[in-house]
């Protein structure tokens, strides 16, 4: 099948590469000419496990190509995915400018029947808006499909290749059959393709993210209570997670959720509801609890050093908002860095993948270490901000030898508190005793 993917970011590039992998002819479009040139030259602009291999293999086989020319890509394709950003607007709503721009470009280049697929996370009513915009600009037939994406950064290729489910919102049997056909190779093991009305598909994505975010905020809150009452969140987590109604995943307390999706999507959902005179109290509480959780580690640092952080040197392990990505959008590490710089401390950071991203944000305001140990040299404390596997089993004696004071603020609960105390560290986790 001939497919175009408009927007070649974390979602678009994965979608394009995975669809090419199953034999489709895919052309990926981006308005960023440097990104396209990099991809054309064999470079991969983002870090995502397994993605480079997939892009290279399919480019070599001639099934995957990159362009800045939307018109050309649209003319050649039957199915056109919109995978452009939907950032948060000032009032909390989703900014649809990129989606509508892309839709206009598709309409202007249309030359026969097209299926326009909303892959971006968009509020209920967007498909109807896209339909209106497109129908004003073309007489060629088209259908709109809402097909929200549920991949996780850091595991995106695997998630797309083996999705728990595929959601298709559509009111055209012709388009539904074609999109089902496109996804058939990914659901061979029996995971469902769930078809529904367009509005339900649009809402499903937000509802899923809000539920997951609420789960995180819930466990963070219980972790705080653990600290007050002498319970250990790891024990509580195992105790509740074994209940099948609750499930074991997403029950790890930390520094608050971040990333490019949860924060903006929850706010957009609240905005959608308030426009319909409905207050989503649970979702608002998840947002508020998360704002408080982002200050959890800064508060611990302030308490430990009795507010005197000026001139202290902090090592930071992890910058990305979670492991296996270079994405720092809304990363909890940002909160920690800003807090420390504001308090007059200095920060030296190391992350296996996000160093370049951090440089583009902080430039010379923080230091960058070539590895995790180099970061610790002369440090007054270490803050662990991302749960990278390579941080889990370090040489603690070596760490102690390098640090000026053996103090660790472990925002990801990577280490065992009892062991750390035995080793002579002053150790702070999240909800652990
Ligand atoms: N990142 C995730 O984990 C994830 C998961 C599920 C859904 N989503 C949703 O998918 C959408 C895309 O997210 P992302 O993280 O891939 O964004 P991104 O910022 O990584 O990539 C978007 C790309 O689109 C390009 N672009 C913008 N306008 C364009 C246009 N008119 N024509 C061509 N290219 C254009 C940008 O240059 C950029 O490269 C968002 O709605 C997001 O909420 C993201």
Which keywords apply here?
binds nicotinamide-adenine-dinucleotide, alpha/beta, 6-stranded parallel β-sheet, 44% helix, 17 helices, single chain, 433 residues, N-(1-d-carboxylethyl)-l-norvaline Dehydrogenase, domain 2, globular, Rossmann fold, 3 domains, 14% strand
Describe this structure in words.
- The structure is a single chain.
- With 433 residues, the protein is of the alpha/beta class.
- It has three domains: 2-196, Rossmann fold (3-Layer(aba) Sandwich); 205-293, N-(1-d-carboxylethyl)-l-norvaline Dehydrogenase, domain 2; 295-428, NAD(P)-binding Rossmann-like Domain (Rossmann fold, 3-Layer(aba) Sandwich), CATH 3.40.50.720.
- Helix content is 44%, strand content 14%.
- Helix 16 links the parallel strand 12 and strand 13 (407-410).
- Helix 1 (10-21) crosses helix 3 (51-60), helix 4 (70-76) crosses helix 5 (97-109) and helix 5 (97-109) packs parallel to helix 6.
- It starts with a strand and ends in a 5-residue tail after the last strand.
- The mean pLDDT is 98.
- The structure holds nicotinamide-adenine-dinucleotide (NAD).
- The site of nicotinamide-adenine-dinucleotide (NAD) has 27 residues, from helix 1 and helix 5.
């Amino acid at each position: 099948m001939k497919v175009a993917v408009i927007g070649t970011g974390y979602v678009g590039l994965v979608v394009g590469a995975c669809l090419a992998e199953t034999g489709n002819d895919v052309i990926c479009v981006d308005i960023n000419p440097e990104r396209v040139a990099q991809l054309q030259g064999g470079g991969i602009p983002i870090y995502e496990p397994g993605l480079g291999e997939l892009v290279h293999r399919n480019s070599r086989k001639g099934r995957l190509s990159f362009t800045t020319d939307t018109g050309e890509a649209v003319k050649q394709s039957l199915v056109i995915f919109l995978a452009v950003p939907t950032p948060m607007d000032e009032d909390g709503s989703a900014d649809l400018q990129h989606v509508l721009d892309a839709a206009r470009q598709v309409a202007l280049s249309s030359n026969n029947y097209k299926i326009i697929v909303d892959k971006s996370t968009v509020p209920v009513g967007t498909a109807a808006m896209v339909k209106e915009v497109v129908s004003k600009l073309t007489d060629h037939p088209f259908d709109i499909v809402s097909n929200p994406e549920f991949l996780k950064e850091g595991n995106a290729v695997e998630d797309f290749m083996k999705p728990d489910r595929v959601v298709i919102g559509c009111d055209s049997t012709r388009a539904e059959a074609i999109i089902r056909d496109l996804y058939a190779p990914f659901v061979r093991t029996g995971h469902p393709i769930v078809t529904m009305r367009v509005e339900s598909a649009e809402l499903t994505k937000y509802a899923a993210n809000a539920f997951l975010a609420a789960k995180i905020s819930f466990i963070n809150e219980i972790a705080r209570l653990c600290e007050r009452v002498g319970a250990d969140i790891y024990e509580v987590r195992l105790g509740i997670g074994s209940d099948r109604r609750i499930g074991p995943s997403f029950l790890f307390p930390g520094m608050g959720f971040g990333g490019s999706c949860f924060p903006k999507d929850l706010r957009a959902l609240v905005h959608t509801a308030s426009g319909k005179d409905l207050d989503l109290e649970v979702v608002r509480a998840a947002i508020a609890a998360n704002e408080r959780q982002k200050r959890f580690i800064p508060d611990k640092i302030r308490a430990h050093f009795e507010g005197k952080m000026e001139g202290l040197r902090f090592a930071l392990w992890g910058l990305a908002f979670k492991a296996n990505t270079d994405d720092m959008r809304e990363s909890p590490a940002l909160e920690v860095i800003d807090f420390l710089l504001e308090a007059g401390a200095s920060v030296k950071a190391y992350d296996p993948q996000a160093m370049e991203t951090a440089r583009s944000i902080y430039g010379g305001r923080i230091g960058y270490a070539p590895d995790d140990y180099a970061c610790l040299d002369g440090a007054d404390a270490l803050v662990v901000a991302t749960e990278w596997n390579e941080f889990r089993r370090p040489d603690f004696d070596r760490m102690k030898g390098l640090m000026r004071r053996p103090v660790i603020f472990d925002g990801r609960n990577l280490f065992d508190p009892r062991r750390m105390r035995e080793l002579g560290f002053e150790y702070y986790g999240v909800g652990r005793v």
